[in-house]
Amino acid sequence: MARKDNTSYKKTIGLAPGTIFYTGEKTSSDLYIEVFKYNKETYEEKELDAIEAAFSYNTATHITWINVNGLNHTKVIEKIGNHYGLHPLILEDIVNTQHRPKIDEYENYLFVVLKMLYFDKNGELVIEHISCVLGDSFVISFQESDGDVFDPIRSRIRNNKGRIRIMGSDYLLYTLMDAVVDNYFNLIEVMGDKIEELEDELFEKKDDNDITYDIQNLKREILRIRRAVFPLREVVNRLEKIEHKLIVKKTRFYLRDLYDHIIQVSENVEIYRDMIWGLMDMYMTTISNKMNEVMKVLTIIATIFIPLTFLAGIYGMNFENIPELKYKYGYYIFWTVLLIIFIGLIVYFKRRKWL
Amino acid sequence: MARKDNTSYKKTIGLAPGTIFYTGEKTSSDLYIEVFKYNKETYEEKELDAIEAAFSYNTATHITWINVNGLNHTKVIEKIGNHYGLHPLILEDIVNTQHRPKIDEYENYLFVVLKMLYFDKNGELVIEHISCVLGDSFVISFQESDGDVFDPIRSRIRNNKGRIRIMGSDYLLYTLMDAVVDNYFNLIEVMGDKIEELEDELFEKKDDNDITYDIQNLKREILRIRRAVFPLREVVNRLEKIEHKLIVKKTRFYLRDLYDHIIQVSENVEIYRDMIWGLMDMYMTTISNKMNEVMKVLTIIATIFIPLTFLAGIYGMNFENIPELKYKYGYYIFWTVLLIIFIGLIVYFKRRKWL
Amino acid sequence: MARKDNTSYKKTIGLAPGTIFYTGEKTSSDLYIEVFKYNKETYEEKELDAIEAAFSYNTATHITWINVNGLNHTKVIEKIGNHYGLHPLILEDIVNTQHRPKIDEYENYLFVVLKMLYFDKNGELVIEHISCVLGDSFVISFQESDGDVFDPIRSRIRNNKGRIRIMGSDYLLYTLMDAVVDNYFNLIEVMGDKIEELEDELFEKKDDNDITYDIQNLKREILRIRRAVFPLREVVNRLEKIEHKLIVKKTRFYLRDLYDHIIQVSENVEIYRDMIWGLMDMYMTTISNKMNEVMKVLTIIATIFIPLTFLAGIYGMNFENIPELKYKYGYYIFWTVLLIIFIGLIVYFKRRKWL
Amino acid sequence: MARKDNTSYKKTIGLAPGTIFYTGEKTSSDLYIEVFKYNKETYEEKELDAIEAAFSYNTATHITWINVNGLNHTKVIEKIGNHYGLHPLILEDIVNTQHRPKIDEYENYLFVVLKMLYFDKNGELVIEHISCVLGDSFVISFQESDGDVFDPIRSRIRNNKGRIRIMGSDYLLYTLMDAVVDNYFNLIEVMGDKIEELEDELFEKKDDNDITYDIQNLKREILRIRRAVFPLREVVNRLEKIEHKLIVKKTRFYLRDLYDHIIQVSENVEIYRDMIWGLMDMYMTTISNKMNEVMKVLTIIATIFIPLTFLAGIYGMNFENIPELKYKYGYYIFWTVLLIIFIGLIVYFKRRKWL
Amino acid sequence: MARKDNTSYKKTIGLAPGTIFYTGEKTSSDLYIEVFKYNKETYEEKELDAIEAAFSYNTATHITWINVNGLNHTKVIEKIGNHYGLHPLILEDIVNTQHRPKIDEYENYLFVVLKMLYFDKNGELVIEHISCVLGDSFVISFQESDGDVFDPIRSRIRNNKGRIRIMGSDYLLYTLMDAVVDNYFNLIEVMGDKIEELEDELFEKKDDNDITYDIQNLKREILRIRRAVFPLREVVNRLEKIEHKLIVKKTRFYLRDLYDHIIQVSENVEIYRDMIWGLMDMYMTTISNKMNEVMKVLTIIATIFIPLTFLAGIYGMNFENIPELKYKYGYYIFWTVLLIIFIGLIVYFKRRKWL
């Protein structure tokens, strides 16, 4: 399972820089392009068959959001690149799903890579590659497949809720990133539940199934989340700080706020990491405690019965001259002695708090 | 319980930035507004029903402190925001109880978020969200519910004790923060006691209840405290350093002092963290020591009686021709041999320091 | 095996700085020089017997790539150094295979050291020393032996694929470095597989062979990879940032991209490091779990049969007056009692989840 | 004992900033004021009853050192503060024994807090709070009680040894700090001895007393030392770097030297910390080794005698037809077989290196 | 043995700053002064009885290297200090063998402290204190005793090999430092061998001697090496960067190279540190594995023979009416049953992979 992150590395080794090669697993996703065009007064929403239709949308009076789903359609992405004059390395990174979050500044546009994280129905962590190009009056977002966290944004555009319709394209970019980061809190919550579950298994239930595997799995997940979330701090921080004509001052407050959220997620990730690493130690003490318990039972049984069996063995000997054997009440005296030893040992164990 | 910190994340996901949504648990707190208005000569103290009454208080000749309890009353907070021209993101953060300590600088006011920490009557760590807005001649503080650490400040205003009545609103902000940080020392002390208690349980008492759970709990608490306290260092440091018309030079000395206190708390938190992490190792050695003790008892008993039982078994055999059985004093010789073996083994164990 | 990295240190101790002494193990490699000379329109490819032939290649109209294989031929390297006016310390570092990745800036050329990593057919990690000199219109690369990761570049030059034929010598240097870094992803993948294998061995198979050795081996490998990869971050970062006439602006975008790739590799290395360190803990719990299992079997057997054997011992005694022995059904009653005890203990173990 | 550091926190919570409240334990120390007044030619030494007498000492021609013992006499400290115009926060910190080392710069004076560390006669680590005010031609030092490390300085002033009489008040401050830091090396040595002792106990002696407690104690001590020593690095570094009229250039060389010493102490503290943390692991292996030894004894005894006892049991059976019982030498053959088994097992254990 | 580093601290506590007090252990070393005087054309080499003879050597046309062995001869060092106008603190540090590596810049000279490391014939790590003063046309080096790593340099001066005779005094200083650092690689190699040896002991040999002690020793050694090597990075880095008339540009390339070497040593030290810390964990698993093995033997023996002994006990009972005892082939049937049980258990253990 460690392999999961790397399956596609091999395919791209040796390719020329700037080659557009989709490295993800969803190689048969349908192409799905949706376009929003809005300003303070009006808005328009369309689903497109071909990307060319979107190119006419760009105007000075509207903000345009082009959302492209299906990174396997590299031809379409190349067309977009040509139309907007994007650098070949950007096109490569749009489809390179292994790429870490980053921000690239060009004269006329900004390029942001980030990661959408969720648990699929099998409870497996999925990391989806999202990239955004911010231009003068447009934002183009790229996703691996449809189904995303942008529905609240769509609804805010449609219903003219919040500030989105009166702000520029930089605010739109912020909103998209904010939606992705907001969703991280879901993830954090699930991770918290998983840790709690494991702790409960460790403490309360007595069954013996090995949870080392589950802990190792959690470790891997938190490490993958960390890798997706941590670089984003730097991305947003830089986005807030850079002097670029596309980022207006009013938006910086929002980016600062976004930065605070990512820090909050990161802190949670670090805390959970500490907790998960601690689980192994806890498990170890649990095992040792169980063994202690087992050993005590063994020791109590052995310590009581081994001496008694010895005594019985004595009077099972065939010496011709064992006077005790001939006493009338020898057998009963014997039992009395056994009982005294037995009670003495029980008292001893009670004192040692073994019983 | 890991979930405790995150219960409210889900509800806010998808909301537009700047939406005022209370994320805490005290959704039915009463609204409680108190106002202090003072200068060198006079002071006035009032409890208000409606926030509007407070708006008339602001004058150039007095310092006004408005203390709002009940973050669930988002309407009231919105009104305050409108009256004082606060940024929507600030209003969002006032009621976002999950937000980490921070400072935001605006042209006409400063916004500070911090955390009040205490253990409730059940011994559970409670983290209460406090935020303060510092304006020209006023401070507005927001809390989740009444009951706070500000009583000494109230009394100092009433009795004109200390410097509070002769200093500006920035000193008032400092005093509020100082009161919160002062209270951290209480917390530190309780944590120290808890660690000591666990250590005593580890060393002195012999009962077997599993303290892994308690250690894990302590870990979680110290991590939560850490998260609430550590960002405050940066906040106070920045507050001391920024060039802002609202912070006068005289107050900076006090902020420096406050910074020292937070560093001191942080150092204690780090030390306790180290101690708590060490507890698990200590517990592990304690378990192993106990097992060693158990194993020794078992080994001593088994090592003494198994050979003796073997000997008894020998003379319990029914061979027709076992000469020893026919000796007159065979039985007594047998006992003598047993005693010699017994004493020999005892001496052996003494030498090995097992007894 | 820890020695492997250091075998050659001793030989160079005491040599004057700038002495050209090959420190690697491939002391009998054949000398193999290949030269590429190309521009937008034409390209030429040659294999040389003597390095002198290459010196005539340098012209203003072409880019020349001289690839020297066989660092043991120090004479040849000295000749190159003399021809191109390279600093003696550079020549020393070209053949010092122990040297870590670095970049040295001189007025007329840049010198870069990096490491090619691969697993040989025995599965052993091999670290090959590569150094490049970037000049005005040429790049000279030095390797320990032929067989490298540059084939895709050769083919791109031949077929005029990608941008390589229209860009300068700095782009060629970038391409060489990019090929080396691309290959790291292979390595990462193999390491991922190895970790996964060990985890599977830990979890699924029950055989007892000690995997401590394998874990220790993995540790050593990841540490060596780390040492080869991490300094490269700084090298590429500096290459991107420096103001040097040899690095044109257009190439910087590509260097930034290369930097992102190295960061990605580094992150993977760190994650694998964490995973490998965790394996030891996992192994420990696995051992303890097995011991628990063993102890339970022992305890169950002993706890059942020791008391029963004691009872049998009782009725094997030779007291003259043991009434039970004379009961007609004494033997059958005895068996019944045994069975009851037996069943009682089984129930007890079931309850304790030991069975 | 974790509580020891914090006992006094509670008392100061809620006090107004600048309140002079002694937080230490030596609440009944006698007041003891000593004054040194010296220049190149002359020196004077006096013990004072009242602080007022010291105020007349300050002249431009002499350096004055006022050493105040007894921080519980807050009235006296207030008087000093008033006379020299010290900031209220400084007075608070002079008597706040919990305060960490720091330096505060004011226009006319510098304020330094540091910690004197020693082990008392019970071997307990004592941390004594020392603060110094450096003025134009005077230094005032404050201690909790008399008995300090300044005797060599007193003697150097009296005997005009070293440079002290020809240098300014900044050099005097340096000398005081140097004396305190010099004494840390004593501490370091005692810690080294303690660690060595514990290691010896772990390796050589076989007695079973639990040293977890001692290790935990050492941990606590090294953490407390760390907290007292580490901030001093920053203090001295700043003292060397600041532009302040009171620190002349000549003294900076000495401060640099002092800084080197503190770094050296810090490094030792870090190394000891590593060693102490390692002790727990060592102890764990020691316990496990002992258990191994115990288990081996048990296993050897059980493995030898259980089969032999079984054989004896066989021939203790009462089957009517057991032919061996009737052999004339049956008993002797039996013993021979036992001996063979016994020797075989001994050989087996020798081979396994268990004996 | 932890004490070894600190034995001399006590003696210097309380001494005035600048006091020349030798803190090392070689208090009876002979004084041994050697002088090299050379330029491009000529060289001269002399062994001196008195240091005064060396003072006439300084000329503008030659480079002079004065090598002083025997730090216990503090009088001589004082004379040198007076002649060259060295600061008293420098003289103190020359003989303070506890001092960490550092560089001090003065107007007319540079002062460098570093550490020569080697293992003596008993295999004990020795740290020898070396300090160098770099002046206009001379270098003075100070060592604790003769016997050093400078022989290659002597031979290079004599034979005019390398660049040494044509470069300035700064290059000579570099050469001395380079020789010391070169020697670290020897050390690194020995440490590598020691680790490998311990690993082999852990894996292959089965004897039971406790290697905790050896691991702890290695830890201490690597920590001491670390302390001697790590500060040197900063020293050389600063030496390369400072603007000082004594360091010419040409030498900076060599210092950069030296810096690379120290980084390489440091990386190795860090890796070995990681490996050594890991050894303890490995040892722990080895112990646990051994215990597992022991426990299995015990469990197998006990599980096989305890039930069989029980059965034998049954038929050793003296009930009057045990029908089996009267069967003609009862005894043989009994053995058959035993055999079946025996084989069944063997099969069971095979399945569980315990055999």
UniProtKB/TrEMBL annotation, chains A, B, C, D, E:
Q: Where in the cell is it found?
A: Cell membrane; Membrane
UniProt keyword annotation of Electron transport present: no
Membrane topology (UniProt): Multi-pass membrane protein
NAD listed as a keyword? no
Q: Which domain of life is it from?
A: Bacteria
GO annotations of cellular component type: plasma membrane
Annotated GO molecular function terms are: cobalt ion binding; cobalt ion transmembrane transporter activity; magnesium ion binding; magnesium ion transmembrane transporter activity
Q: Which residues form a coiled coil?
A: 181-208
The UniProt transmembrane annotation reads 297-317, 329-349
Q: Which UniProt keywords apply?
A: Cell membrane, Coiled coil, Ion transport, Magnesium, Membrane, Transmembrane, Transmembrane helix, Transport
Q: Any idea what job this protein has?
A: Mediates influx of magnesium ions.
Task: Write out the similarity annotation.
Answer: Belongs to the CorA metal ion transporter (MIT) (TC 1.A.35) family.
Name this protein carries in UniProt: Magnesium transport protein CorA
* Organism of provenance: Aquimarina algicola
Gene of origin?
Answer: corA
